[in-house]
Amino acid sequence: MAERVVLAYSGGLDTSVGIGWLKDATGKEVVALAVDVGQEGEDMDVIRQRALDCGAVESIVIDAKDEFANDYIVPALKANALYQKRYPLVSAISRPLIAKHLAATARALGADSVAHGCTGKGNDQVRFEAAVTALAPELTSLAPVRDFALTRDKAIEYAAVHNLPIAQSKKSPYSIDQNVWGRAVETGFLEDPWNAPIEDLYTYTQDPSIPREATEIIITFDQGVPVAVDGKPVTPLEAVVLLNKLAGDQGVGRIDIVEDRLVGIKSREVYESPAGIALITAHEELENVTVERDVARYKRGVEAKWSELVYDGLWFSGLKKSLDAFIEDTQKYVSGDIRLKLHAGTAVVTGRQSKQSLYDFDLATYDTGDSFDQSMAKGFIELWSLPSKIAARRDQAAK
């Protein structure tokens, strides 16, 4: 049997043309693998057939939406993962899942290599290849767009010459990646960071400037996992889909950011993640109520490092796994309800309650019945500031 390469197939121009380019450049049979992570937009059966029509010897579609939500979105939520404090890792958490299925499929079919449609300029090439290397180091990774100089003009010409069934034959003004956790838009006029986004960019969110009544919801968490919305039980995937609708209708989750790419350049990106922003906002507030002070302070640094590792394509790294263990331990008491007001592009916590709450009314109140012994504060302050006092005396003596 001829050697095979398994291609991460999106159904778009680059990966469709990439099937033929891979065959021509390597002499290998190409197996197309499409992984459904909630990107929507096209019927996956149509995508499967398109790969075959473009020359794939086999076309495989995997429905990984629940796996994506349970094993990738939930850990990101527990980590309150926001790269540069703003980006909810929309693309970054989908790549290791796709890479996992790429590696598994390649091994199952006896293929010696995998391929993706990334350019040499972005983060995703690193994410795919680093993940495959960590999971199946014997596999070789190929990137036709990067390695074989497959420019967009060449791709369009190749599709026309070979009569490939590619609907996307004209140059789109944007590069778009999306899944159930959110949507990423770049290039076109957005490459000038002075240009403001236009309303046509957005599909997951409604215009937040349009007057509408606020939406108030209650999200229930169990050990950091959303398990109900307004009292109705939900799976993690159902929670994300529902919050995309409820928060998206209020314009929540729009992010316009210049970010630091792994390859060393700055890139202007526009994101939509209504469920991501709403759920992280709620989860963070529940942690404020249920996680003790020193753990919470330390976790913020872990969250930043976790987000950087995932953004940089190191989902399967040893450090990320160790940070996962710490984060998981912090979630054992993160259970309770958060009331969230969604309105005019914002998600605002208006109430919180938990049986595991560390908030003690009798200690916190300033009214009669206060159980906090304020007389202890004077001695505490003296001891707390004693090192500073001693150092100040030394500094004064040295003048």
Instruction: Write down the secondary-structure element order.
Output: EHEHEHHEHEHHEEEEEHEEHHHEEHHH
Report the biggest beta sheet as strand number plus sense, adding barrel if it closes: 5 strands, parallel
**E-strand count:** 14
Q: Kindly provide the name of the CATH class of one domain.
A: Alpha Beta
User: Going by CATH, what is the homologous superfamily of one domain?
Assistant: HUPs
Low-confidence stretches: none
Mean pLDDT across residues: 93
Which strand order spans the largest sheet, edge to edge or round the barrel?
Answer: 3-2-1-4-5
Number of continuous helical runs:
14
Structure classification = alpha/beta
Strand content: 15-25%
GO cellular component, one term: cytoplasm
Family: Belongs to the argininosuccinate synthase family. Type 1 subfamily.
Subcellular location: Cytoplasm
EC number: 6.3.4.5
